[in-house]
Amino acid sequence: MIGIANIGIYIPEEKISNLDLLEKFDVSVEFITEKIGVLHRARKQPEQKASDLCIKAFEDLKSKESINLEDIECCVVVTQNPNFNIPHVSAIVHGELGLSEECASFDISLGCSGYVYALSIVMAFMQANGMTKGLLFTADPYSDIIDEDDKNTALIFGDAGTVSLLDTEATLVPLGFDFGSRGSGYKGLMNKDKLYMNGRAVFSFTATVVPPSIRKLLDKYGISKESIDCWYFHQGSKYIVDTITQRLELDENKVVFDMYEYGNTVSSSIPLLLSNDIESFQTGQKIVLSGFGVGLSWASAVFQK
Amino acid sequence: MSDISKEQILDVIEKAKVVNNIHELDASVLFSEQDIDSLDVSGMLLSIEEAFGVEIPDEDIDGLLTINDILGYVNNKIK
Predict the structure, then answer these.
(1) Helices in B1-79 by DSSP H: which ranges?
(2) pTM (2 d.p.)
């Protein structure tokens, strides 16, 4: 079975401090730390594009895994801020990495739900076509579209890139997925020259659809909430992670939260968290991943070591 | 349907664990003057929407600055 073998990451070195913006946005330190959960936002260099974040993440993966580029059979990038409209970012990454011409390359246009959606899509694609090794990148540099004077978004988003090696010799294999969409709410989070987010609408959406999605997923596969060892929610903000945790009545010690030093990195948020833990999971341990946001859309999954 | 009381509103917010010590707040004082921030207000309004089956559109929230504002608004809605 195809699963996640390892994860490489890239977090840009430049960090923008939210503590320098307290006066500008009339917010307190407590609001920044306890509600937003972001002290510093990672910021790519202006000339860096999505493909550059992917390449950097791959360099990290290569430091952890011996990878023969000739063996890579698919190269997928999750992004909604590509280098260009045409071609797809994965084509650029394919060329820069020197991957085989036998390798399939395509992008997936999704935001914060993108990693979990993409895991299902790419694993199924690989399985259906007899592939054994693939690269799944996430790279959505929101710094290119943020209005730095918009309190709703300027304190939250950071840049990062990740790459997951999907392999038949996997560390984490999927037990099941749940997906959903609420297209009627698309205006709550969109790029109209600059990013616009209706914070209240996105919060209400997330608080009301994610817990039921996870309950439905666990019920479908006969998995108890108590048997989940770790919960990896999209790091939208501390407030939303705390809200989901509270609504699901979870042991907060099992809910991973780690966005203080880089921010909400969109589809990279979940793989960034996973990269810290992937080499320490014990056989039989189960984890839940749940991404939600742009679309509005959501995807949840249970994986097992 | 009889009017919803202030206690009912506060109980809903307390049960949702949105704001600590909600019963100690002054119902006539602005949220912003009682360390209740915009995210807390979003959480409060969601819990009220769910508990009382009312929808609070974005265009109405500018006028919901105190507990008394919310109480009056919800009772108006359910009539």
Answers:
(1) 6-15, 38-52, 67-78
(2) 0.96
Chain A residues in contact with chain B using a Cβ-Cβ cutoff of 8 Å: 27-28, 31, 35, 198-201, 203-204, 207-208, 237, 239, 243, 246
Query: The domain A3-167 is classified under which CATH number: 3.40.47.10, 3.40.50.10540, 3.90.960.10, 2.30.30.140?
Result: 3.40.47.10
* pLDDT per residue as tens digits for the range A223-265: 999 999 999 999 999 999 999 999 999 999 999 999 999 999 9
Which residue in A200, A207, A246 is closest to B58 by CB distance?
A: A200
Topology classification of domain B6-78? 1.10.1200
- Res A59 pLDDT > 80: yes
Q: Which ipTM did the prediction report?
A: 0.91
pLDDT tier for residue B21 given thresholds of 50, 70 and 90: confident
H/E element, B5: none
A173-304 to CATH, choices 3.40.50.300, 3.40.50.970, 3.30.450.20, 3.40.47.10: 3.40.47.10
Residue A207: which of B17, B46, B58 has the nearest Cβ? B46
Q: What are the sequence ranges of the domains in chain B?
A: 6-78
Is A118's pLDDT higher than 90?
A: yes
Does the distance separating the beta carbons of B43 and A200 come in below 8 Å?
Answer: no
* pLDDT, tens digit, 9 for 90 and up, residues B68-77: 999 999 999 9
